[in-house]
């Protein structure tokens, strides 16, 4: 009788290569201690413990988490805050006026020379700052005219600084030289009690504030006694209208 054929070595090798697709160890039901609830399976699934960070969540477009209830409120508050900050910046940094006005003549001293009459007139200017920033004042230029004749000039390079929302008084001495023969005789005439001389002051200054320069100008009018010293302050006359 014949004997049953034995399996070849190749058959044994083929049998050894066949492995299950799903490991029996993995396919057996895990215990509760080894798994946790699946956060994306609506509570009906479980995943191995320690693999929660490897999940990819898929959220439907209709999910309320994609539609925060206070989105409009947050947007409205953001817009309101931006508008408020912009308004405050414009309010505090918007350039306002710097006012230049004459105050008074503090004193005038008269000196009689052989060919002229010299006067040193102390004037006071008021500089008003209406800004929320400091104002620097430079280049004060004053020109004194007796009718159409220039009788004195003055230039001050660095004048003063004015703090925010305040006013500053600045005094300067204006030299005047009267060389006209008729004017000189008039001022030295002892028969007259008062010797009135008319002066027109043309004043200009440069102010710097909020990163820009401005030029301010002012006209003032004075009536002074050119025959004697005066130490009593009196107000300057405003420009004629």
Binned strand content: 35-45%
For the report, how would you describe the main beta sheet? 4 strands, antiparallel
Q: Estimate nothing, just give the exact number of structural domains.
A: 3
How many helices does DSSP assign?
A: 4
Mean pLDDT: 83
Strand line-up in the sheet with most strands: 7-4-3-10
| N-to-C CA distance | 150 Å
Structural class: alpha+beta
Give, in order, the helices and strands: HHEEHEEEEEHEEE
CATH fold name of the largest domain? Immunoglobulin-like
CATH class of the largest domain: Mainly Beta
Low-confidence stretches: 20-28
The CATH superfamily name of the largest domain is Immunoglobulins
Form type: rod-shaped
């Amino acid at each position: 009788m014949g004997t049953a054929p034995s399996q070849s070595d190749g058959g044994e090798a083929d049998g050894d290569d066949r492995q299950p697709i799903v490991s029996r160890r993995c396919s057996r039901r895990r215990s509760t201690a080894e798994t946790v609830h699946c956060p994306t399976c609506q509570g009906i699934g479980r995943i191995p413990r320690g693999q929660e960070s490897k999940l990819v969540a898929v959220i439907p477009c209709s999910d309320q988490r994609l539609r925060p209830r206070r989105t409009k409120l947050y947007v409205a508050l953001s817009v309101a805050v931006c508008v408020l900050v912009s308004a405050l910046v414009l309010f505090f940094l918007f350039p306002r006026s710097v006012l230049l006005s004459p105050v008074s003549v503090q004193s005038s001293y008269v000196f009689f020379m052989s060919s002229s009459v010299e006067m040193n007139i102390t004037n006071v200017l008021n500089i008003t700052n209406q800004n929320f920033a400091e104002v620097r004042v430079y280049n004060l230029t004053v020109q004194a005219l007796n009718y159409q004749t220039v009788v004195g000039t003055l230039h001050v390079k660095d004048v003063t600084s004015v703090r925010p929302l305040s006013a500053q008084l600045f005094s300067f001495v204006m030299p005047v030289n009267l060389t006209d023969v008729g004017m000189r005789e008039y001022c030295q005439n002892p028969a007259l009690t008062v010797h009135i001389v008319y002066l027109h002051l043309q004043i200009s200054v440069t102010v710097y504030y909020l990163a820009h320069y401005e030029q301010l100008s002012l006209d003032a009018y004075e009536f002074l006694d050119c025959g004697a010293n005066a130490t009593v302050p009196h107000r300057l006359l405003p420009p004629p209208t």
